[in-house]
User: What shape does this take?
Amino acid sequence: MNNTTDLLQTMAREWGAGHGRPAESYLDGQTLSPSEVLDVVYQEYVLRRATGERPGAEEFIGRFPEYREALVRQFELESALSTSMSLRDAQTLAQVEPSTVALNTRAHLATFPTGPIASARTSFAMNSAAAVAASSGASGTRSSNASPL
Assistant: This one.
């Protein structure tokens, strides 16, 4: 498995089936760029939150100290986005196609400064949209009463 997208999809499947593992086990034996490593690390965080856990940023910074700066920025971004998202936005997010959410989220994230975690932010947007759709039972089709983001 040398495609990061495949790796992230495997993680999502395993976590969704209740067999999630720490990011380190998915990274073992992989040759990934720093950005791809951050994708995997942040994917664990997102998937754990989707299962009801509330992992803290400190845990991930402690486990991946070499990525401290990038992780701090990622968690700050996540906090800012989750603070600004209303319940209505969350409900709308669950009703639209993941690809639509990813495109709209990419446009929103484009307003943030770029840096070494830019691709992690994009992957987070795509994977979060898919996780929300999967956890809400969305069929992948847009609901007629869903408003655009």
Q: What stands out?
A: The longest helix spans residues 118-136. Residues 4-136 form one domain. Residues 99-122, 138-149 have pLDDT under 50 and may be disordered.
